[in-house]
Design brief:
Length: about 140
């Protein structure tokens, strides 16, 4: 994927960030989601939000932070490649378990989240322990 972000014209016509991400997403889908597993969750944690947006939508925020809103397609693609590289390095160093664990903790801090983590026996036990702990 880093090669694609360095030479996007070899993979897509009229390369821009959207087309490059669409190509990467197609590759990821063809590989049953393995190459980008954990990326959505990692990006949500990086930007602290947008849980209901695809990884492509979440990637645009840090790309814009790095290169600005009016950056060239080449600069945006290059920044996306750097961010993807950071994700792959983080995932290799820390593993998927850490990514998903941190994401679960993030979800539980959100008052709007009412999913299965909130209703699991483990989370109920944690909440009841937290209620009984004396405050310092």
């Amino acid at each position: 994927m880093s090669a694609m972000c360095k030479r996007p014209g070899m993979y897509v016509v009229d390369a821009d960030l959207g087309r490059v991400c669409a190509f990467i997403d197609g590759f990821n889908t063809a590989q049953a989601g393995g190459p980008l597993m954990g990326l959505h969750q990692w990006l949500v944690l990086q930007i602290d939000g947008a849980d209901n947006v695809s990884w492509i939508g979440n990637l645009e925020c840090p790309v814009r932070q790095r290169v600005g809103n009016s950056a060239s397609p080449e600069a945006s693609i290059s920044a996306a490649g750097e961010i993807l590289g950071e994700f792959f390095s983080y995932r290799q160093a820390n593993g998927l378990t850490k990514i998903f664990s941190d994401y679960a903790k993030w979800l539980l801090r959100k008052t709007w989240y009412q999913g299965p983590l909130r209703n699991s026996p483990t989370s109920r036990a944690t909440r009841s322990r937290a209620k009984t702990k004396p405050r310092a």
